[in-house]
UniProtKB/TrEMBL annotation, chains A, B:
Phosphoribosyl-AMP cyclohydrolase domain residues: 48-123
Keyword flag Ion transport: no
Protein name: Phosphoribosyl-AMP cyclohydrolase
Main location per the UniProt record: cytoplasm
NCBIfam families given in the database record: PRK00051.1
Compartment(s): Cytoplasm
Pathway where this protein functions: Amino-acid biosynthesis; L-histidine biosynthesis; L-histidine from 5-phospho-alpha-D-ribose 1-diphosphate: step 3/9; Amino-acid biosynthesis; L-histidine biosynthesis; L-histidine from 5-phospho-alpha-D-ribose 1-diphosphate: step 2/9
Length: 137, 137
């Protein structure tokens, strides 16, 4: 799935083509971002949710390793570059209007995804009383 | 988990509190939105990804049925109001910085989530040749 950033097709104004076509037409929002959900390919667990700009998506397709755009740092971010938690792409699913991706990955390093040390970023649940609980604790 | 919109706590500037605390402090972006991923509670399948503003999140917590903010229509959107595909909340997971939610749901109506008729919005995969394929076809 090697693809250069400038070869990514533009979204179609024809909803039928965008939603039912076979052409990958990633739709970036007004900030130039789309949303990506990383899922552990082995377990199906959702690991994290982050954003990609055109450059990050192209780098992901070119290398087979997931790159995001860090909104807080304002730059390209190769996941795992410092932590070793490299996310190798196994499969990319695209939603109806092509503004969101589910990326099934194999994770390097310790197998986790969250900078807090948790395996998944979604380590807290909203309890009945409105407070957050950590089910795994 | 009933909660009025105006009683939702604000995000903390203390990362430790935001990431490890027990207080739900949903973090809306510059557009007043956070991201929600709806997951079928029975199967674990990702059904859709959409956005919530403060009103939509509060309505979700108050009613136990998922409400989103439609970016295209610019208004509150109770999922399933016309289609019958009501999403009843079973569990809400919150990510580290509290700007994304995973909502495990039971789906009413025909059990689907996508306006195209597909069960999940993620019905296409990016194939090796860079085109989109429908694995279920």
């Amino acid at each position: 799935m090697t693809r250069a950033a400038n070869s990514l097709e533009l979204p179609s104004s024809d909803a039928n083509e965008q939603e039912r076509g076979a052409t990958f037409r990633p739709k970036f929002d007004a900030n130039g971002l789309l949303t990506a959900v990383a899922v552990d390919d082995a377990t199906g667990d959702i690991l994290m949710l982050a954003h990609m700009d055109r450059t990050a998506l192209a780098a992901t397709l070119e290398t087979g390793e997931v790159h995001y755009y860090s909104r807080s740092r304002g730059k390209l971010w190769k996941k795992g570059e410092t932590s070793g938690q490299i996310q190798t792409v196994r499969r990319i699913l695209v939603d109806c209007d092509q503004d969101a991706l589910v990326i099934r990955v194999t994770v390097g390093g310790d197998g986790g995804a969250c900078h807090t040390g948790a395996r998944s970023c979604f380590y807290r649940a909203l309890g009945e009383d409105g407070t957050l609980v950590r089910p795994e604790d």
